[in-house]
Specification:
The protein is an alpha/beta fold and about 200 residues long. It has one domain (about 1-10, about 20-85, about 90-195): Rossmann fold, CATH 3.40.50. The chain contains seven helices and seven strands, in the order H-H-E-H-E-H-E-H-E-H-E-H-E-E. It is globular and about 40 Å long.
């Protein structure tokens, strides 16, 4: 579906401001300090806006997307912005075998998980856990069920069930976005990998 959207130029998810939840992690707030810049993985990076933002804030970033046209656009945008990002064509359900690396201190997914089938979600969780560093943070920004036409969505209960026991949910909330049709249509989840979790 996304390959078709990119082919015809229908990409309404591009061009939105950086998610507030991501800015809070990267830049900090009065209540919480910013994360120390390290290595980051942008899963379903699209045309690279989030990856570029992270690189501009000192992170060593790898962006992965399964749509080649999106990856090509992301590389061009990063070059125009004067930042270095390792953009790769790849599948979020096969990360450990497709070579983006391991030991990522931050993994960001803005709209990848919520469109997957149940089996792919199982594989996704396994692969994200496999490439995460101990104590890594994971930021998910996903539509809830019914929050967007054509997207299955995911809710808090499913997030907690699928990611337990290797990850702990630290925070969740409504994610303001111009595409929201109503409150809580899009939510963010911040999780932390347990340092004792075994890699697959």
């Amino acid at each position: 579906m996304f390959r078709v959207f990119y082919r015809i130029g229908f990409t309404p998810w591009d061009g939105h401001p950086i998610a507030t939840s991501l800015r809070t992690l990267i830049e900090g707030t009065g209540d919480s300090p910013a994360l120390a810049a390290a290595s980051a993985l942008d899963v379903g990076c699209g045309t690279g806006d989030t990856s570029i933002y992270l690189a501009q804030h000192g992170w060593q970033v790898t962006g992965v997307d399964f749509v080649p046209k999106a990856v090509k656009k992301a590389r061009a945008k990063a070059a125009a912005a004067g930042v270095s990002v390792d953009f790769r064509h790849g599948d979020a359900t096969r990360l450990s075998s497709e070579g983006p690396g391991t030991g990522f201190g931050l993994i960001v997914d803005q709209g990848c998980l919520h469109g997957m089938s149940g089996d792919d979600r199982d594989r996704y969780v396994r692969e994200v856990t496999a490439v995460a560093a101990p104590d890594a943070r994971l930021l998910l920004v996903e539509f809830t069920p019914g929050g967007s036409i054509g997207v299955p969505g995911v809710d808090r209960a499913e997030i907690e069930r699928r990611f337990a026991p290797d990850w702990t949910l630290l925070a969740t909330g409504d994610q303001p976005n111009a595409a929201n049709r109503y409150r809580d249509a899009l939510r963010y989840y911040v999780l932390q990998r347990q340092s004792g979790a075994q890699q697959s």
